[in-house]
Amino acid sequence: xxxxxxxxxxxxxxxxxxxxxxxxxxxxxxxxxxxxxxxxxxxxxxxxxxxxxxxxxxxxxxxxxxxxxxxxxxxxxxxxxxxxxxxxxxxxxxxxxxxxxxxxxxxxxxxxxxxxxxxxxxxxxxxxxxxxxxxxxxxxxxxxxxxxxxxxxxxxxxxxxxxxxxxxxxxxxxxxxxxxxxxxxxxxxxxxxxxxxxxxxxxxxxxxxxxxxxxxxxxxxxxxxxxxxxxxxxxxxxxxxxxxxxxxxxxxx
Amino acid sequence: xxxxxxxxxxxxxxxxxxxxxxxxxxxxxxxxxxxxxxxxxxxxxxxxxxxxxxxxxxxxxxxxxxxxxxxxxxxxxxxxxxxxxxxxxxxxxxxxxxxxxxxxxxxxxxxxxxxxxxxxxxxxxxxxxxxxxxxxxxxxxxxxxxxxxxxxxxxxxxxxxxxxxxxxxxxxxxxxxxxxxxxxxxxxxxxxxxxxxxxxxxxxxxxxxxxxxxxxxxxxxxxxxxxxxxxxxxxxxxxxxxxxxxxxxxxxxxxxxxxxxxxxxxxxxxxxxxxxxxxxxxxxxxxxxxxxxxxxxxxxxxxxxxxxxxxxxxx
Lengths: 253, 315
Description:
The structure holds 2 protein chains of 2 kinds.
Chain A: H1 3-19, H2 21-43, E1 49-50, E2 53-54, H3 55-86, H4 89-94, H5 99-128, H6 136-160, H7 164-180, H8 193-199, H9 203-216, H10 223-247
Helix pairs in contact in A: 1-5, 2-3, 2-5, 3-5, 3-6, 3-7, 3-9, 5-6, 6-9, 6-10, 9-10
Chain B: E1 3-13, E2 19-29, E3 33-37, H1 44-52, E4 59-64, E5 67-68, H2 73-78, E6 80-83, H3 95-105, H4 112-121, H5 137-149, E7 155-159, H6 167-182, E8 186-191, H7 194-200, E9 203-208, E10 211-217, H8 218-225, E11 227-234, E12 250-252, E13 258-264, H9 272-281, E14 286-293, H10 296-305, H11 311-314
Parallel strand pairs in B: 3-8, 3-9, 6-7, 7-8
Antiparallel strand pairs in B: 1-2, 1-4, 4-5, 9-10, 11-13, 11-14, 12-13
Helix pairs in contact in B: 3-5
């Protein structure tokens, strides 16, 4: 293993976030606060509780998921797309470095950033509501697995994209709708039966549900089902990445 | 021959069907400076990119210091430093950090003293904390060289190193190249500037359409292919060419004051003595006599533009 290489890639990627620390942290903090004002206070005051949880509190896990999914995908996709765009990828390709090692560096850094942002959002949320976490270990497990899987997913998008438009289209067209329709701001039990069934095809439902369970012990689907689904998603991403690794897809000619 | 790079039957066909490299066999000697000379699109960059591992070969085999560059890619790539043709650098890193980054990619521990020494050698030391985007093109080129040297490679590839580079940097670059060669580094540079190959290379490989047309010691190449010219200037214009000069490969300038005789310098009889004797017999008084040797450029143009030239004929 070329640990030195993993370290420098990881550090260079983290450095990029540290250089822009204000933007990195300010945007999730501000948007979380806005969601709390709009959904938590304004609308939430008309909704008493969902599954016995005050609405302001109920949306915390979903809001956190919304942000870390988006951030994981955009951080990781940008992290690998940019060297392709400006040509510095030649260094990675000509170094005595396996694809897997590069992957750990890039995806590890993207996942770390998302994890930090997730924690910052939870801290911000605790300023607005009385946050309690029933199962901290489960909470962390879901948080870390989500950060890693979606960073991996973002990495794949970054490899696939050959323009900035493509880089942005997946987050806009896929991630945002999935998260909004994934029960971030409501329980899917509140939907008409047909939409409940349709929602079960949305992987984000399982993430949000499991994550929410770790806070309040209320969930739309069983927590083990949630865990299984995220592991399946992680496995799919790993399979795609190892296929890319074998073929050198879009990296090597 | 002690080869540091051995290329056997290397071909590269791109997905669009373009054959960039066509069955290349090439041995690069340890410690030499080899110039890969060829026009744009000849396959120079593809060749070095394939050796460095950026492009996957379609077929064939590359050994770098005895290591197969596919099956033992780590050991093979560890030997190589690559300076790309384009100024491909990030924008916001500092000079020092980007050079250290490359060293890390090669699995080496940070060594600030070593990095600083490289930066000093390349006159980058006082810019070490500058962001890359603040640097001029020439400075960026130096940074790319520093990055390529950050892991002390045995082999250095310079892809079009002097494209868009001013005279000063060019001199600096040759100074660095010479020093590296003295320390035992093998240097492969691609260029379409003949003077560059002529100035610095030990051997020259001429590449065209993915094929190596010839590879030869530079001096021998110039001697073998080099025609010499005898240039004679007269005090008065020459009215008519004396009959006695018939059969000589002679051309006369428009003002009829300069005569150029082209001959083969390696031949037993060059014909110079007789030519001068006959000019004397014809009563011509001479103002100046000099000889010139054709440059690598002439040789190159000859080779590349002569469709029917095969390597054997050319050599």
